[in-house]
Amino acid sequence: MVPVVLLTVLLAREVLSARAPGDTRPNFVIFLPDETRAESIGAYGHPFVRTPNLDALAANGTLFTDAHVLRAQCAPSRCAMITGRYMHVLGHRTQTHLVREYEPNFFRYLKDAGYYVSWHGKNDMFSQAAFPLSVSNWTNDIGVASGQNPYPFGTPGYYSFLATGSNMSGNDTQGGNGDYEAVLKTLQFMADDPPEPFLVFLPGAGSHPPYGAPKEYQNMYSAEQVSDIAPLRPPHVPNKPRYHEGIITSRHLESFNQTFFEKINAIYLGRVSYLDWILGELVSGIDALPAISQNTAIFVTSDHGDFAGDYNLVEKWCTGLDDIMTRVPLIARVPGGSRGHVVNAPVQSFDLFYTLTVMAKVNVSHIHFAKSLLPELMGDAGDMNRTVYSEGGYQYFREFEPNDPEQKKIYSNPRNLYYPRGQEELTEGCPRAIMAKTATHKLVYRPEGVSEMYDLATDKRELNNVYSNPKYQEIQKKMKMDLLSMMLRTADVTPVLEDPRDLPPSPRTFQKD
Asked: Which end of the chain is more exposed for a tag (fewer CB within 10 A), N or C?
């Protein structure tokens, strides 16, 4: 006789596993490595990095060449992705103001429509009250073994995020490689009669600093390769915003030569190759399960990029809207979709998450600003006239990370690698900024601080700020008006829930003695 407890588990699993008759909605897998910029991937034109699995996914699906995040920082970027709303709409500007339980989001629509949402990785998206409303099951499997800081506290280099690299291999699951463990758990889930339709979300550490990698990836590339084949953007570019100098000096990196930053970039590329290997394990594991593979859409993207040594800078900056910060990979392989298709039209990161609901035929009732990418996944060229946007920076006391009660323990500790970033925010400021980008031009407007304008037809690496150049005044004026219009159209949204205008019942009635 089957024990009662086991029978209950088996019956529950049978209920979870069963699709409704005729339910052909696709499964979704979203592979989201942190801090991964598009230009550091082979399929996006990098001349020597080895990313065979990302390249193969693009060859068998759709590659978006001009996908931009809504904010070049983890939590605000992800909150925008999942709600379809710009950062300024509901104030998700900081790392600790996440999506609340009363805010609609695309994962919750899918879960409410019967999708089993499985999550392995970091959060930076939902408040704790909102999490179980949008996710069915979750684990905190995240990380890449990166080794130790080679620089003692108090010496130049300590704040560079450079690491020694690990003595463990990339396929070691005995600690440190949580990104890989997340994939193993996902494949076990799929092989074990999973509930369908499902959505698996894998928000891993990806390329996030420190700049260190498992042993076979730490020295996969050299500073010499970077110097000779893919030179970094130089430091001290004229007319760049103040943070281009501030990050160097606050982190005490001014004494290091160019080779030091080329080494950082080489290790960053090693991390990209490692996440590519992890993706390969994921895709090959899915493809080994034909019943799952034939009805599962796979997406790869990121929440933002990284300086990775360019401009002699490391990590990211709260008001930075450089291309290496906002342009991320977006690659998709979907059932019945186009193969080897390249979309050059500008798109936004929240478009992907809204597209899941379109593919699942789920009605989205709240006001949002995302556009479906399903036509592009089926072979459409996209809208080359589209303008995309991104935001950054702080204005008010509580917005600055060192002033955030939840962040103070990080930014008040001089031994923490983020300590100099907090000091730079407080002393030099981190002015609010907003970016408008078309296929040909990019405007970054800062009411306080240095604004930027780039002619992308002649300056793809954004080395010549033409904001004050009379030749570009007409296009600059037009893009500023576009920003004004965009802010007016999106500055607030009507809530989904409605309220009666009548008075509620009075809690007590006054009676005279």
From this structure: C
Give the residue numbers spanning the domain of 280: 24-434
Helical (H) or strand (E) element with 454: strand 452-455
Strands 198-202 and 441-445: unpaired
Residue 343 confidence (pLDDT): 98
471-502 confidence digits (pLDDT tens): 999 999 999 999 999 999 999 998 878 889 99
Query: How far, in Å, CA of 437 to CA of 387, rounded?
Result: 5
Which of 275, 105, 135 is CA-nearest to residue 198?
135
Q: pLDDT digit string (tens) for 318-359?
A: 999 999 999 999 999 999 999 999 999 999 999 999 999 999
507 inside domain: no
- The three state secondary structure string of 328-388 is ECCEEECCCCCCCEEECCCEEHHHHHHHHHHHCCCCCCCCCCCCCCHHHHCCCCCCCCCCE
Closest to 196 measured CA to CA, from 118, 253, 305, 262: 118
CB within 8 Å of 440: residues ≥ 6 apart: 455, 456, 457
Q: Using omega within 30 degrees of 0 as the cis cutoff, is the peptide bond preceding 197 cis?
A: yes
* SS3 track for 148-167: CCCCCCCCCCHHHCECCCCC
Residue 460, classified by CB atoms within 10 Å of its CB into exposed (0-12), middle (13-18) or buried (19+), is exposed
Identity of residue 64:
F
Whether 121 is in a domain gets the answer yes
Phi, psi of 371 (to 5 degrees): -125, 145
User: How many domains is the chain partitioned into structurally?
Assistant: 1
> pLDDT of 213-272, one tens digit each?
999 999 999 999 999 999 999 999 999 998 898 888 889 999 999 999 999 999 999 999
**Predicted TM-score (pTM) of this structure:** 0.94
Residue environment code for 32-46, b if the CB has 16+ CB neighbours within 10 A, otherwise e: bbbbbbbbbbbbbeb
Residue 190 half-sphere exposure, CB side, CA atoms within 13 Å? 27
In a domain? residue 424: yes
Domain CATH code at residue 82: 3.40.720.10
Residue 187 lies in a domain: yes
